Amino acid sequence: MSQPAADRRVPVMVLTGFLGAGKTTLLNRLLRDPSMSRTAVLINEFGEIGVDHHLVSKVDDSLVVLDSGCICCSVQGDLLRALKDVFQRGVRREIDPVERVLIETTGLADPAPIIHTLMQDFFVSARFRCDGVITAVDATHAPAQLDRHREAVRQVAMADRLLLTKCDLVDAAERTAVIDRLRTLNPGAPLIEVFDGVVGPEAIEACGIYDPGSKLPDVEVWLGEEAARARAQRTPAVTGPAAWRRPGAAPAATQSVRHDADVRSFVLSFDEPLDWLGFSEGLSLLLQVYGERLLRVKGLLNVSGDPLPRIVQCVQHVGYPPASLPAWPESGPYADRRSRLVFIVRDLPQEEVANILGSLCGQLPVTQA
Ligand SMILES: Nc1nc2c(ncn2[C@@H]2O[C@H](COP(=O)(O)OP(=O)(O)OP(=O)(O)O)[C@@H](O)[C@H]2O)c(=O)[nH]1
Q1: Fewer beta carbons below 10 Å: N end or C end of the chain?
Q2: 73-77, 78-82, 98-102, 162-166: lowest mean pLDDT where?
Q3: Is 150 a residue whose pLDDT tops 90?
Q4: Is the Cβ–Cβ distance between 83 and 128 less than 8 Å?
Q5: Which UniProt keywords apply (predicted)?
Q6: Whether the CB of 105 sits within 6 Å of ligand 1
Q7: Which of 159, 152, 149, 157 is nearest to 138 (CA)?
Q8: Are 207 and 268 in the same domain?
């Protein structure tokens, strides 16, 4: 019997997971491995002032930021354009031929429209194959996130592989409880426990061609819904010129039509270098009082007396140890070295956040919706 011809299409992996689950951390770790050097990375940012791509150590032409909205709502046209461009630039030898594509979605993305987009476009599906959805699940926050956010449930249910992150922050009993919960949502996906963000390429390899039949029946329904939605709309997802950009170009305004109306993002920026002590106190107070409604906080700060940009990261009531970037970005919104914090909140007015932070930092932030 003749063997089927090898599938030479470039595998595309979708790295998803709820806000702050550890996607960028995993991506960084993976890209450090020499075997991952021919990987094109597409990062989708939620919020006007994207931070993630500054936190990814890969800086070359095969890193693309999709920032004109959320990838599952409004950026599907950008995604196709970016993939076509990656392919064509490889053919023209402007970049090394790409062996795989990794798409990091926003924490609120629904994987269904992304997979649908990849499978339905003629040019893209002839050259790229969806090799699977890898979902990062935060062991510390998963129970509450799965209770409250349907996006988190969909991301788990659609996974081909589950990466249970932050296992170093929970005990064995908590870990087992989360794993049991994940197994009820997605019994089939292999699960890898991640400690301190450490993973190797094997964590994402060979997820297999995306096959909705191997998931719970709902997944098929979701993909079916996407197909129906696409048929009903039959309008390009994005109008105007190609809206994806490389890091450094000006960001576009964001929009979100798919997510809960009470989830929103805003940016607070500070003109003057910040007093670290006052800022830390303000942030701790915010986390204590509003942790549940602060889905995600991240940003780069200009701290008095420190020449390097300090990275601040929080997920709900947890603030992670601050780190520094090796240098300030030379282009893009952060090149002006002002401190900026991106907030993704549920039901929390930005004035309240600005007032608390401002009163303890000694300077009122400028707010941007
Ligand atoms: N202790 C510990 N911290 C982790 C681990 N993975 C991620 N973190 C921390 O969790 C915070 C959020 O991680 P990110 O990688 O930025 O999460 P993300 O999913 O990319 O976040 P969004 O893009 O905003 O959704 C950072 O401060 C990380 O250092 C882990 O396995 N262990």
Answers
A1: N
A2: 73-77
A3: no
A4: yes
A5: Chaperone, Hydrolase, Nucleotide-binding
A6: no
A7: 152
A8: no
CA of 22 to the centre of ligand 1 (A): 3
Q: Which amino acid is at 114?
A: I
| Residue 244 within a domain | no
Helix axes 276-290, 350-361, angle to 10 degrees: 150
> At 274, which CATH number?
3.30.1220.10
> Same domain for 229 and 313?
no
Q: Find where tokens 């595309």 sit.
A: 12
344 CB near ligand 1 (under 6 Å): no
> Does pLDDT of 227 surpass 70?
no
Tally of CB atoms within 10 A around 37? 13
Residues 228-259 have pLDDT tens digits of 666 655 443 332 222 333 444 333 333 334 55
* Number of folded domains that form the chain: 2
Q: How far apart are the C-alpha atoms of 231 and 162, rounded to whole Å?
A: 31
pLDDT more than 90, % of the chain? 27
Q: From 14, 24, 57, 110, give the residue whose CB has the most ligand 1 atoms within 8 Å, as the site to mutate.
A: 24
CA neighbours closer than 13 Å in the CB half-sphere of residue 190? 10
Boundary of a domain, candidates 184, 215, 233:
233
- ipTM of the predicted assembly exceeds 0.85: yes
Domain enclosing residue 171, as ranges: 10-233
User: Across the beta sheet with 128-138, what order do the strands follow?
Assistant: 63-66, 39-44, 100-104, 10-17, 128-138, 161-165, 191-193
Per-residue model confidence as pLDDT tens digits over 176-196:
999 999 988 887 788 999 999
Residue nearest to atom 10 of ligand 1 (CA): 22
